[in-house]
Specification:
The protein is an alpha/beta fold. The protein has helices at 50-57, 61-68, 71-82, 85-88, 102-109, 123-133, 177-187, 209-215; strands at 92-96, 114-119, 140-144, 159-164, 188-195.
């Protein structure tokens, strides 16, 4: 049995800089059409559920701009993926909740054979354009739909790696973990990789005297 390959670390220097390539990454610009999609099938639009509002919130550019500008978040994923090409070379990768497709592009640049990004929100249409503008249409496929409802293209029954930025406020706020686990159970090969696969939650009790005075002591 071959020894496990050591995970390569990389310094933070140059994460968001580096030399320019012939084809620069495309910048997103709002064209005023980033509103949630409406059905044009002639039927009245049904009443939206909380899930609909959740996905709609990720259809707008603003929230993705905020996440991309988080250098700790984006840079950490970039290092974890692109500094370990031996994990991604010639592998089939699944990106859950791919958003603008940034993690899918990292995986493609790291040598993945093909990356399938799944995104329910309307930003999926922009993700396809971003992938094309960056020259990775042959390596990255964006699928619009819910993980629990879609199927991967014919012939793709299993994937080697699942990547996802599923963490929300207080780690679990966005409730995406169940979706990642569903994808793991359905598509991940035995001994496949999930990135990230570990998290720590630190909890400490505090007292906000001003808030307590305003909200609790008010009733005394």
């Amino acid at each position: 049995m071959s020894a496990a390959k050591k995970v390569v670390s990389m310094n933070d220097e140059g994460l968001f800089g580096g030399k320019k390539t012939e084809k620069e990454d495309v910048a997103m610009k709002s064209n005023g059409n980033d509103k949630s999609e409406k059905k044009n099938d002639g039927n009245e639009e049904k009443e939206k559920t909380s899930a609909d509002y959740y996905f709609d919130s990720y259809s707008h550019f603003g929230i993705h701009e905020e996440m991309l500008k988080d250098k700790v978040r984006t840079g950490t994923y970039q290092k974890a993926i692109m500094s370990n090409p031996h994990l991604f070379k010639d592998k089939i990768v699944l990106d859950i909740g791919c958003g603008t497709g940034i993690l899918s592009l990292f995986a493609a640049k790291a040598g993945a054979k093909h990356v399938y990004g799944i995104e329910m929100a309307g930003i999926a249409h922009s993700a396809r354009k971003i992938v094309a503008e960056n020259g990775f249409s042959d390596k990255v496929t964006i699928i619009k739909g819910k993980v629990e409802e879609i199927e991967l293209p014919s012939g793709v029954n299993k994937v080697d790696i699942i990547i996802s930025e599923w963490m929300g406020y207080f780690l679990l706020y966005e409730s995406m973990l169940n979706t990642v686990l569903y994808a793991r159970d359905k598509w991940l090969r035995p001994n496949g990789i999930i990135m990230p696969d570990k998290a720590r939650m630190y909890i400490v009790a505090i007292e906000d005297g001003e808030y307590m005075s305003e909200k609790i002591n008010f009733w005394d």
